[in-house]
Specification:
Blueprint lengths: L20 H52 L15
Length: 87
């Protein structure tokens, strides 16, 4: 697929072309939109982490509570089979 002899065409003119004011303004607008998008994504990621940790803490708390509650129950520990009635 790749040809090792292929070299892309690069214009041999100016090394640093001068950009027009409209192009610079457009680049600034795009950069600002990108910064806003990244900030929004970071906020969403932070909220997702907080939500995940909250749900995980809730599940872990319920698990610990159920383990603790089962350890307190003693009604099966002293279970003696009732004497059988003979007829």
């Amino acid at each position: 697929m790749g040809d090792s002899n292929f070299n892309p065409k690069i214009p041999s003119g100016e090394q640093n072309p001068v950009l027009k004011k409209a192009e610079l303004d457009y680049m600034k607008i795009i950069e600002q939109k990108n910064r806003e998008r990244v900030a929004k994504l970071q906020q969403t990621a932070k909220r997702n982490r907080i939500t995940g940790l909250s749900i995980g803490a809730g599940v872990f708390g319920i698990y610990l509570y159920s383990i603790f509650a089962v350890k307190q129950e003693t009604f099966l520990d002293d279970f003696e089979e009732p004497a059988k009635i003979q007829q």
